[in-house]
Amino acid sequence: DSGVTQTPKHLITATGQRVTLRCSPRSGDLSVYWYQQSLDQGLQFLIQYYNGEERAKGNILERFSAQQFPDLHSELNLSSLELGDSALYFCASSGGLAGVDNEQFFGPGTRLTVL
Amino acid sequence: LAKTTQPISMDSYEGQEVNITCSHNNIATNDYITWYQQFPSQGPRFIIQGYKTKVTNEVASLFIPADRKSSTLSLPRVSLSDTAVYYCLVGDRGSSNTGKLIFGQGTTLQVKP
């Protein structure tokens, strides 16, 4: 158990819909990262927040947005969903600012299926 | 932008040493190299991290040459439970310090009895 929790575990929805994925980091961790993992794209970094502020942006689509709240939990919002958005979405947390210099602890993931 | 390249798959037998190499062109001066292990339907798990030369912990060693354009994860005496996908991660700082993180495409290691 990494200490990072993600809800829901599974999510099935239809094209065009909007969903929200939730992540609670390990106690004391200030950084939260979101990743998308699909069979053809591998692990893709989406975005990082540090203590409530956006820190780094990766291959995140404009239809996707995220935020980190004062209690440090984070939400990833996916809108106008397309079939290609079906994937496993991971959240990770670390204690420090720079993702590459700190060990990241990954949650169990949310499996999103868009029908 | 940094780009990482790993072999897609490797096979080994129990008790052997396994070396997985990741090439990372354009790695920035301040970037660290990190390796993660992932089992099916689980999130990746940290294995080891290094900046240069050699790093060793209780489960693996990481070798990084002087030019830092590649790194090799070494797993001593693998067992069946080491069957997993292994990813290298480097930071994409570049000249603009974007903080973007680049994972390799992953190496599927199959350990046979």
Question: If you had to describe this structure to a student in words, what would you say it looks like?
Answer:
The complex is a heterodimer of chains A (115) and B (113). Chain A is mainly β and 115 residues long. Chain A has no helices and eleven strands. Chain B has strands spanning 3-5, 9-13, 18-25, 33-38, 45-50, 53-56, 61-64, 70-75, 84-92, 100-103, 107-112. The mean pLDDT of chain B is 89. The chains are: A mainly beta (115), B mainly beta (113).
The overall pLDDT average of chain B reads: 89
| Percent strand of chain A | over 45%
Major pleated sheet of chain B? 6 strands, mixed
Number of strands of chain B: 11
Q: Biggest sheet of chain A, open or closed, and with what strands and sense?
A: 7 strands, mixed
Unreliable stretches of chain B: none
Report Rg of chain B: 14 Å
Distance between the termini of chain B: 40 Å
Summarize the structure.
Chain A is mostly beta strands and 115 residues long. Chain A has strands at 5-7, 10-13, 19-24, 31-38, 42-50, 53-57, 64-68, 74-78, 87-94, 105-106, 110-114. The model of chain A has no long low-confidence stretch (mean pLDDT 92).
Keywords:
heterodimer, A: 115 residues, mainly beta, seven-stranded mixed sheet, four-stranded antiparallel sheet, B: 113 residues, six-stranded mixed sheet, five-stranded antiparallel sheet, 11 strands, 54% strand
Q: Secondary-structure blueprint of this entry?
A:
The complex is a heterodimer of chains A (115) and B (113).
Chain A (H helix, E strand, L loop, with lengths): L4 E3 L2 E4 L5 E6 L6 E8 L3 E9 L2 E5 L6 E5 L5 E5 L8 E8 L10 E2 L3 E5 L1
Parallel strand pairs in A: 2-11
Antiparallel strand pairs in A: 1-3, 3-8, 4-5, 4-9, 5-6, 7-8, 9-10, 9-11
Chain B lengths: L2 E3 L3 E5 L4 E8 L7 E6 L6 E6 L2 E4 L4 E4 L5 E6 L8 E9 L7 E4 L3 E6 L1
Parallel strand pairs in B: 2-11
Antiparallel strand pairs in B: 1-3, 3-8, 4-5, 4-9, 6-7, 7-8, 9-10, 9-11
